[in-house]
């Protein structure tokens, strides 16, 4: 079995490589020219250097491949210009279309595509499943949904089968997103939250995401299906913050701001935004986002591809904290 993977060097890619390294498969990794595999993977995998939009690169990448894990793409980023917005579609949509075309030509059997719950366009007070309506708001989420549609229609046009995995917030080593920022603020003892902290969020550790991807790649019933994948349980903000504090080995705990006070501050922020030409740090939308639940069902993945999480919240957060200590040179 020959496996190829785009986006192999990131937070989601490296745990997948760890599993594939133990599997005995022949593995190819597509890397941008400036990227390098970690030392533990050197000489273990074939490296193809190039861009997802390069037809020649994709021909080499897809040649003799059975399954492709497609993780590469332009991720969360606030576009500063029309060019920045178009870049999401050039990389995430056009690049995916070119990958599918090369995969079809090379008779690849299946592509597993890593997507996001951002396609639903919801930030709070929402519980979603695979049948929930998708109304993406950001350029990132819109481009991901378009790429999903290409993946799921691939086999109808003689291309490989497609599987779409939608992930919520991911945590683990190499995370550059909100969890890493939260850990930093807890480390500095400046993190706080609104209300009692009992609102819930769905999340997933990078190891659990890799486990789901392997299941999706080899389960026949996964063909041309979409799956929401989480840790299999939801966490209150208090539970998540406590896991971070334990991993940091601190007795300090984040302080609370009464929700009524936060809402009042949000209303004041709304008023300021009506008279100034920039976004205020705190407004009603941000208060709602930071004090509302956002959860997703993982039942379809559990039942149809027999996905079971292999890592607990505390284990995953501990791994991320250990990585951040090395990255930030924390004592």
TrEMBL record:
Stored SUPFAM superfamilies: NAD(P)-binding Rossmann-fold domains (SSF51735)
One Pfam family in the UniProt entry: Epimerase
Domain NAD-dependent epimerase/dehydratase, first and last residues per copy: 3-223
Protein name according to UniProt: NAD dependent epimerase/dehydratase
């Amino acid at each position: 079995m020959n496996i190829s993977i785009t986006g192999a060097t990131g937070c989601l890619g490296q745990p997948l490589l760890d599993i594939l390294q133990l599997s005995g498969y022949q593995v190819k990794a597509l890397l941008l020219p400036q990227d390098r595999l970690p030392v533990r993977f050197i000489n273990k995998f074939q490296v193809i250097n190039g861009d997802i939009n390069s037809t020649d690169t994709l021909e080499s990448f897809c040649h003799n491949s059975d399954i492709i894990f497609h993780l590469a793409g332009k991720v969360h980023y606030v576009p500063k210009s029309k060019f920045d917005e178009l870049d999401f579609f050039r990389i995430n949509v056009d690049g995916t279309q070119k990958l599918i075309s090369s995969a079809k030509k090379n008779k690849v059997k299946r592509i597993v595509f890593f997507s996001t719950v951002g396609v639903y366009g919801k930030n709070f007070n929402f519980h979603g499943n695979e049948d929930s309506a998708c109304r993406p708001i950001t350029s990132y989420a819109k481009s991901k949904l378009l790429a999903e549609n290409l993946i799921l229609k691939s086999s109808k046009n003689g291309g490989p089968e497609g599987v779409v995995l939608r992930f919520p917030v991911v945590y683990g080593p190499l995370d550059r997103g909100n969890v890493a920022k939260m850990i930093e603020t807890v480390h500095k003892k400046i993190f706080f939250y609104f209300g009692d902290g009992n609102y819930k969020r769905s999340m997933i550790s990078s190891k659990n995401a890799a486990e789901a991807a392997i299941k999706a790649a080899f389960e026949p019933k996964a063909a041309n299906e979409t799956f929401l994948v989480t840790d299999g349980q939801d966490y209150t903000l208090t539970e998540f913050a406590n896991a971070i504090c334990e991993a940091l080995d601190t007795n300090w705990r984040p302080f609370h701001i009464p929700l009524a006070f936060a809402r009042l501050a949000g209303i004041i922020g709304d008023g300021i935004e009506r008279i100034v030409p920039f976004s205020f740090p705190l407004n009603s939308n941000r208060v709602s986002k930071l004090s509302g639940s956002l959860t997703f069902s993982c039942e379809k993945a559990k039942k149809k591809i027999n996905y079971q999480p292999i890592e607990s919240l505390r284990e995953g957060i501990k791994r991320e904290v250990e990585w951040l200590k090395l990255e930030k040179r924390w004592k």
